[in-house]
């Protein structure tokens, strides 16, 4: 499907995904059995930690077990397909990133799921701007120095991502293109593997959120060279943005969102959204799980999430094209 046609389809089909009535034959109100939240990344990363906190709070509110299941693999495809094929009853949910919905459609020639037809958006949870961090021994403390060192040592620097087409991969490939440097891509399974690799010197660079790197930066095990977004992060105010550093088009950012299988009753979507919104209005939760980890709070409506997804797909289509990334 051509990109403009795909984008129009996203707007139409996503909006339609939520307009489904509950089954009148349902004997008990939702939820009346355990809920499973599938996360397409390994345990230990920022999205996994946030998902577990959300699951714990939902469990308390619903008086039902909420289990987080990590299903990493194939650029989030394994988890996405599992949820897309699950019953549309609200008992299997997906917390994922832009990779699943906005990148994979342009990265893969064919997917075993349709990001529009197979999912009902519940809410965009948080937005995070990613840090470009370097091994402490790398003789570069900012992007200008990194570019100079990389040009003097072409092909000798490595950077870790968490897979082809992942946000770190796209961001670094666009940075390389704009800076005119040669830095070798080394894909890992996830942030929990990529960050230690940068600390140990297996690679010299990687992208990550503040939640996974702040302690290492403050301890001197990593150096933060730049951060995505339009403003500096309050947790690390000394780190300049990519825009400040002369690279405003580097897409060093990502989002986490909650989805249900398409066809999930509208009443269930509404209840899930209401409970997540309630949680995200809790000052203690916001301070401990959002602000302290460098996230930007969103928790908007399903309709607002749909509108965001349309623009995000367009941005990522361009990023994939510029990066030249392809996956099978």
Describe the structure.
This protein has 328 residues and is α/β, with parallel strands linked by helices. The protein has two domains: 3-127 and 254-323, Bordetella uptake gene, domain 1 (D-Maltodextrin-Binding Protein, domain 2), CATH 3.40.190.150; 131-227, Periplasmic binding protein-like II (D-Maltodextrin-Binding Protein, domain 2, 3-Layer(aba) Sandwich), CATH 3.40.190. Helices cover 42% and strands 20% of the residues. It contains eleven helices and eleven strands. The chain has helices at residues 3-17, 46-62, 77-84, 98-107, 143-152, 167-179, 191-200, 210-218, 266-280, 283-290, 302-323, and strands spanning 35-39, 66-70, 92-97, 119-129, 131-135, 157-161, 183-187, 205-208, 222-227, 253-261, 295-297. The strands form two sheets. Strands 2-1-3-10-4-11 form a six-stranded mixed sheet, with helices on both faces. Strands 7-6-8-5-9 form a five-stranded mixed sheet, with helices on both faces.
Supply database-style keywords:
328 residues; alpha/beta; D-Maltodextrin-Binding Protein, domain 2; 2 domains; 6-stranded mixed sheet; 5-stranded mixed sheet; 11 strands; globular
Concise account of the structure shown:
The protein is an alpha/beta fold. It is built from eleven helices and eleven strands.
Task: Assign the structural class, choosing from mainly alpha, mainly beta, alpha/beta, alpha+beta, or little secondary structure.
Answer: alpha/beta
Mean pLDDT over the residues: 89
The biggest beta sheet is recorded as: 6 strands, mixed
What quaternary form is this? single chain
**If strands are numbered along the chain, what order do they take across the biggest sheet?**
2-1-3-10-4-11
Query: How many domains make up the coordinates?
Result: 2
Strand tally: 11
**N→C terminal distance:** 17 Å
Supply the CATH superfamily name of the largest domain.
Bordetella uptake gene, domain 1
> Can you tell me the CATH architecture of the largest domain?
3-Layer(aba) Sandwich
> Proportion of β residues?
15-25%
Helix content: 40-55%
CATH third-tier fold name of the largest domain: D-Maltodextrin-Binding Protein, domain 2
Nearest-angstrom radius of gyration? 20 Å
Order of helices and strands: HEHEHEHEEHEHEHEHEEHHEH
What is the tally of helical segments?
11
- Assign the CATH class of the largest domain: Alpha Beta
What overall form do the CA principal axes indicate? globular
Unreliable parts: 1-26
